Fold each of these.
Amino acid sequence: MNRFIPVDRQTDYLLPPSVDDWLPEDHLARFVVDVVEQLDLSELTRQYAGRGRKAHHPSVLLSLLVYGYATGVFSSRKIERATYDSVAFRYLAANTHPDHDTLATFRRRFLPELEGLFTQVLVLAREMKLLKLGTIALDGTKVKANASKHKALSYGHASRVEEQLKAEVKALTERAEAADRDEAGDGMDIPEEIARREQRLAAIAEAKATIEARAQERDDAEQQAYETKQAEREAQRQAGTPPRGREPKPPETGPRGSDQVNLTDEQSRIMPVTGKGFDQCYNAQAAVDTDTVLVTYVHVTQAANDKQQLAPLLTGLAALPPGLGTPRHLLGDTGYYSAANVHQCHSHGIEPLVAIKRDAHHRPVFERFAADPSTPDTDDPVAIMAHRLATQAGRRLYALRKHTVEPVFGIIKQVMGFRQLSMRGLDQARGEWRLVTMAWNIKRMHRLMAA
């Protein structure tokens, strides 16, 4: 008795197979196609001139990229290979095989249009009754740039190498003059050696100019902060109150020896990363809805600090379509705290719950269940927020932050495998981060629909 299913790779199909039969009904690839087909891709299609060979439709290329990022396949070459090897990718490509250059060009060309598509996905989630903004949690994560930190050049080292190269050029020039008088040569191609050093000198000069421009921006910001502090202290003196603390020192101007620029991606920055010291990174921001864990806003910055990233969030939320609703609460860790940020949230009609200081873990049981403090008699938004964070209801609401936005970053980096950007430059980093989070949203919507 034969106990095994017969294996027959030679018999042809009587009828042509249909790609629609290749996947289960609830497969993620089917959902990606359904979502992309409901998006308005006119901004993409109108940019095709219609000359030459027929192009792959943007809906096909976008579906491949979204599904690729959602499942950890980011390389255009791997996506091309998957259209042959993977049933899901074959289904997405409708049994066609876009080459890797087409996929890479499409991704690079249409990154600016992803902002509108990201919002369209949110609107679609609202129409599917999966999203209505209420409480959002904001946080940032460092994403490795497509550049090595060992390719960074500091201003001090650049100056030393510049002096060395200039001395070598001078010595080579003198050697060339001596060689003209002495016919016996040593086999050295002196003009080539001089040209190589002059090329390096030009690259170093360009790098130093970039560092000096950044230093000038920093000097302007530090000077403005210094003048603001001096004005505040002078106002206190005129009011009869001696200012507390030491007198602020004038900022030091000019580039510092430790100032760096990366020769591979000069717009990336050295940033502290968890458990690894420092790396060449961008700071990727995301605001996540606490009810559905959908990302509602994304932003990428070159600043390692998060304090200045709350204002762009408020501007971005105000630009969302009215049908998505208006957030009632904004949760953020202590990295986003400043009195100015609290006032900005109130001016936008959002109640902030931003940690003022780091709280100790595992608070004593009697402190956790203590009665709420009395409401302060003040209109100061900072005092009102501090009281709200001290209440049991406020602490429960703030506790949503750590199991809302941080798991999203963990899943994107560990499950989806997105730990490093594929493209270089700030604009490209912003577009790729938007593509990653849009893939996360579609993947999350698929799970919500299944639930």
Amino acid sequence: MRTMMTAAALAAIGLTSCATTTSAQDAPRVVMETDAGRMVVELDLARAPLSTCNFLSYVTDGDYDGGRFFRTVVRATNAGNPHPIDVIQAATPRGDDDDLRPPIPLERTRDTGLSHVAGAISMARDGPDTATSSFFIVTQDTPALDFGGGRNPDGEGFAAFGRLVEGLDVARRIQMSPANSEERLTPSVVIRSTRIEGHVPPGCHP
């Protein structure tokens, strides 16, 4: 089971400095080019600094290039779960268990004020404080993913940290692509590149 990073571990990847005061003007954007089209996500550095800086560390090192959207969950066919969701999940080329960097603390929506609305980007996880590189994009409003929601049995929810400002139609197209009985896209959708617009925010530097 992954555990919360120590202060030293956070500092090692430059996340402690993310807690500095930020504003909406500091919101970085990441352009994601996929085989299904282009998506642009605006990250909420002000309210979800740990998740944002963690994601950007993978982006700036090119870790998502050649990765894939590998999973789709569709509410209409997810009836076996009392809390169905609409999401697509992505991973680096090393897979959804890629732990090249230490896991990060869970930024609960209770604390950030963010929610899993259509277009939200959020960190995939197992237990609390276990998220590393795998992320998902929500295609329809899904409050079951928020703190107190029932999708995860622990009720802690997931860490939303931004939202698509372009390409929700692309995300929905990926979601409706062919998949097998285990919710795996067949074939998966390649992430050609992820690039930050401009520079890494100062708050994400060591």
Amino acid sequence: MRTACIIPAFNEEKTIKDVIEVVKSVKIIDEVIVVSDGSKDNTAKISRDMGVFTIEYEENKGKGAALKAGIDNANADILLFLDADLIGLTKQHVISLLEPVINDEADMTIGIFSNGRLATDLAQKVAPHLSGQRAIKKEIITNINNIDMTRYGVEVALTKLVEKENYRVKTVELKDMTHIMKEEKLGFKKGIAARMKMYWEIVKCLKM
């Protein structure tokens, strides 16, 4: 079975290189796709310079649209989704997410941070369905209608689908891993505004 890693990215020039380097070192991944979703920094250039197939949007379309672009271009049976702002990602994290799906022990895995930072650990324990780190069989995700319209609600849409259809889900601990928070990227005021917008998109998806 072929596997593809899809990395949606919006202005992640500080972290995307490290994420790509780890992913490319994992032998069970056959292709890597980065979707630069309206980035205004060097995100897309870094990705291309590393030899990764890169899709570049001029304007930000949202995480759902970025993932759909990756899915549509992936020649794989199993898809791995990773955020571009991860800190502490290792080969073992990637393998732990993929192997249960490859071995048909699960239809989808969800990665949950632990022992990284209190804020991100707590957020994922409270709402694990919001995690962007997951592996899934491609045939499942094609059953989500209008995934490109879900924006930040895409993880909720995925979780709702597998619950509705009784797919097998396995939670995977991602020890010593975290990510850069919006308030750190954008500054406190802009970060809070972006977080509120994200939560609103998630709430809308929950109501669907």
